[in-house]
Amino acid sequence: MVDVAREAGVALRTVSRVVNQDSTVGPELVQRVRTAIATLGYRPDERARHLRLGVTGTLGAAVRQLSHVNPVLRAVERAARAADLMVLAASTEDDETLERHVVESMCRRRFDGIVLEPIGDDHGYLVPELEAGLSLVAVDRPVLGLDVDCVLSDNRSGIETAYRHLVRHGHDRIAYIGDDERIYTARERARAFRECVTAHGGTLDTMLHTGQVESGRIREAVRAALGGPAPATAIVTGNAQLSVEVLRHLGTDAVDVALIGFDDSELATLLRPDLTVIAQDTDAIGSTAIDMLRARIADPATEVRQVTVPVELIVRGSGEVPPGP
Amino acid sequence: MVDVAREAGVALRTVSRVVNQDSTVGPELVQRVRTAIATLGYRPDERARHLRLGVTGTLGAAVRQLSHVNPVLRAVERAARAADLMVLAASTEDDETLERHVVESMCRRRFDGIVLEPIGDDHGYLVPELEAGLSLVAVDRPVLGLDVDCVLSDNRSGIETAYRHLVRHGHDRIAYIGDDERIYTARERARAFRECVTAHGGTLDTMLHTGQVESGRIREAVRAALGGPAPATAIVTGNAQLSVEVLRHLGTDAVDVALIGFDDSELATLLRPDLTVIAQDTDAIGSTAIDMLRARIADPATEVRQVTVPVELIVRGSGEVPPGP
DNA sequence: ACCTTTCGAGATAACGTTATCTCAGCTTGG
DNA sequence: CCAAGCTGAGATAACGTTATCTCGAAAGGT
């Protein structure tokens, strides 16, 4: 910049003014500076700019896996772009240590705010950052033990809706195959399922299967649910990945068992019959997250909010298969 | 930092030394500084650090869609992490304007290097950045018209392998349904397919269908390929998304037509029969990209390289269906 | 003609780091 | 016992921006 100033024969400050489209600089000098910038190949350095300004115009997104389907992240990017903020994302790989590493890096880089898919139960490392003024919003799962903005899906009523839907279609023996209950969403959904079964006067015995998404476990879960003296006639799955695994192991039985999957996905309409799902409103989640984050950045004293976004039952066929004999 | 220094009763430089684990500071002062840091809640500011140091320890990844399955990006993150570099990613949404915006933002932030999935044919905006010392590596597609490091899959031999495989299984009428040929990979694959057909003395008539991935178009393509006086007995698809669409429209005919998909995916083993695919070596692509980028960052005079990574035929059943009567 | 306002542009001081230089106080070897 | 080396720590100057203050000159009002 100082070189540009010398080349154009103006003061440093004037170059800054031209770069920032300040109107208080005469057209002739503007031209001189412009050509100097071009000949010297000057590119402004945002690091210095951000240092001086205090803000970076950047939001961080720390998500489980960048390279996985994540419609919430897409909505987050869109909403941020609309607000002229850049989103830079990194994966936490479902690893608490890595999450901490990523979030702390973003803090040291002084991102204006962070959208986080929190992992695990201990987020104590966030306390000093929050005290130091970090703006944070959690999506998909809350930050347990900390009073932080968050946007969640209505997991419980999603499961309840699925359950009621199956009951209405005549099912009595309904199984749930879910993710590891150490994960918040899995815990919520499993809990809701238990309550549904109890409320309908049923028993859980072979009807509830949660644990890691691992092919062998899913195979056993499917076998247990469909075997025995009183086999399930319907299955609810805990997330999109589990729907895939369950379908894989159902094989040709898939047409005889009613199935409702949590999460909509591309393959839902690829199958015969098409997959009935509980769909999350990912667009709403993403844009709400950005709204809340912007509000907090604008005024750190904003009251902490926990927003729950409704889910929707999408009827496609697999959930309407009647119970067998 | 100056507050910490005052609190600890030491010089500014000493705080910096403690923060950076410099050994030339006495244990007593280290302790004093540590407690001062804790009581004041001091967090180092990487913006200033990077400004002073010149490097940022950060790589940018500009990819089509963060929130889509992208195993190359995963490999890129892994490899960068192993080299103690942080990857921050952003979506270009397959939009040339947005790509430029994203890349230029990363340049102004002085990222040490950028991994780019280039879009479109005009990357002129990169020229001044490259002259100013930008380290860039293109993945999946080359940067046309510019001499830039890149890592590509061997698209042509992938198509050739698929074609030969089908011929070996007795097919004679083989159709190709591909993506829009404005996209580099789609162009390469379609071209290779044309050459295969010509080399085998066939004609293209209803055998080649390229264009945007749009449900209606795919339906027509499938219908055209399988209809008429000499219907195709086998189909090769141009990417994973197209495999899904083609399967969707094949419906129950799926078992009678041999199918080989470009790109492996989760659903390949979900179907009956399982999907035979041409799989890209995404791990190799990602780690090679990071290797090349690191080499260029270390020495900007490194010779520009274009690396082609082999693809692999994975036989699963759908590609081994014999031709019908 | 003189005072006041307005406007364009320069000087200087931050922003929060680290590198370089300096220096005082020790050791150490002859 | 002193010069030479080492060692721990401070002073100062960058890195590349922008905000604030200042100032000269032109314009406008009485």
From TrEMBL, chains A, B:
Keywords: DNA-binding, Transcription, Transcription regulation. Residues 1-53 form the HTH lacI-type domain. InterPro entries: HTH_LacI, LacI/GalR-like_sensor, Lambda_DNA-bd_dom_sf, Peripla_BP_I. The keyword tRNA processing does not apply. One of its GO terms (molecular function) is DNA-binding transcription factor activity. This is LacI family transcriptional regulator. PROSITE patterns: HTH_LACI_2. The keyword Ribosomal protein does not apply. Gene3D superfamilies: 3.40.50.2300, lambda repressor-like DNA-binding domains. Pfam families: LacI, Peripla_BP_3.
